[in-house]
Amino acid sequence: NTNNLMCNAYVTQSFMKGRFAVKLEAFDLFQQLKSVDYQVNGQGKSEIRYNTIPHYIMLHAIYKMNVGGKK
């Protein structure tokens, strides 16, 4: 088990009366998640690999359509 401080953030802005939105999302801002851990034991150095998602920034563009129409 590891104790990593992980920070995620996102910001959303709507346009055109809420029909169009833009969202900026960031994962692992401090880059604390590592995929390789090195340990030294009595027989030498060992390497352990983990499946982790690397840090990233993603931009979402969302458009809401009203298919049914107004009544």
Task: Write out key terms for the chains shown.
single chain; 71 residues; mainly beta; three-stranded antiparallel β-sheet
Low-confidence stretches at least 5 residues in length (pLDDT < 50)? none
Rounded mean pLDDT is 81
Shape: rod-shaped
Helical content class? under 10%
Rg: 21 Å
> What's the helix-strand series?
EEEEE
- Total helical segments: 0
- When the domains are counted, the total is 1
Strands in their spatial order, largest beta sheet: 1-2-5
Main beta-sheet strand count, sense and barrel state: 3 strands, antiparallel
Compute the number of strand runs: 5
Distance between the termini: 56 Å
Q: Approximately how much beta-strand content do the residues carry?
A: over 45%
Structural category is: mainly beta
Q: Would you give an account of this structure?
A:
With 71 residues, the chain is an all-beta fold. It has one domain (9-63). Helix content is 0%, strand content 49%. The protein contains no helices and five strands. It has strands at residues 9-15, 20-27, 36-41, 44-49, 56-63. The strands form two sheets. The chain has a three-stranded antiparallel beta sheet, with no helix packed on it. It has a two-stranded antiparallel ribbon with strand order 3-4. A hairpin with a 2-residue loop joins strand 3 and strand 4. The chain is rod-shaped, with a radius of gyration of 21 Å. The protein starts with 8 loop residues before the first strand and ends in an 8-residue tail after the last strand.
